[in-house]
Predict the 3D structure of the following.
Amino acid sequence: MAATIMDGKALAAKVKEEVREQTSKMEHKPGLAVVLVGDDPASRVYVNGKRRDCEACGIYSEEYALPAETSQQELLELVETLNGREDIDGILVQLPLPRHLDEKAVLLAIRPDKDVDCFHPFNVGQLMIGEAGFQPCTPAGIMRMLKEYGIDPERIGVIGDSAGGYLVQMLGATNGEKAFDKGDFTNVSSDVQAVCTIYGISDLTSIGEGLDPAQVKVHASPAVTEALLVHGPAFGKSPGGSILSDREKAMNASSLGHIDGSEPPFLIMHGSGDRLVSPMQSAHLAQALRKAGTDVEYVLVEGAGHGDLPWFQKPVIERVVKFFEKRLGSPAKDAAEGNNL
């Protein structure tokens, strides 16, 4: 199976041309007002990009670059003025705002029908029931890319190595769970249909199992990554803590703590020579999944370490590709006929 190149720049150019064709036929050109408070360098880059995109798409735009000391009242008065202008169809207040300003109050002041960032509670609610006007640009762009390349969002496979392996394990192990669903689009399933984990972490309490005793001792420190992930740093009123200080909390943050038989097919790969993440991590995960009745392929690559050359050889790559082909099927026809490697 050839890999499909998802060319974001080419798709962006295509979308801009589509929008330009639409705006060229409009008697009233859409108008966007962008408000920037202060001189945050990253915000300036975003605002400049929005201006260029508007020009490319035939959209009228105005920029309001306000000094960092702008008061809350002054900013709200500008938003209210823009709310009342008929030639301005969208308002975007670039975040973050300076610390003395109340972002929430500013975002709530924008008329919902001009809220292009879709931050207003009314628009968030409309989005949740499938009746959105404006849509958040990043997820909307992702969905357009999936459609463009014929990718079925009901056939999602994930792959990751090391810390990425930990992440995809958690994605698969929490299929059907809602406790980790936070933020936007919580009404949409976060389940995946196939998981490939390569020298990943399945139990935060035993990453160094079977390795050098000095490494095992290091993992008991409250300063290592897994301890900081679960307990946070020792700062202020937070005492921090070793990953071993609260096993229940540690296992809730580990894929092995969620195995219940609802997991998708797994391909688990590890190197016998790994001295960073114990090969026992993958062995324990494979054993637990099999016990739960999950479809599992477990591969121990003899002599392979952590992220070294054996992982980039053709047999390993082919094994991964075949796994996803078997579990997810071939790519959609549109994608198969697109740009391939």
Observations:
- The mean pLDDT is 91.
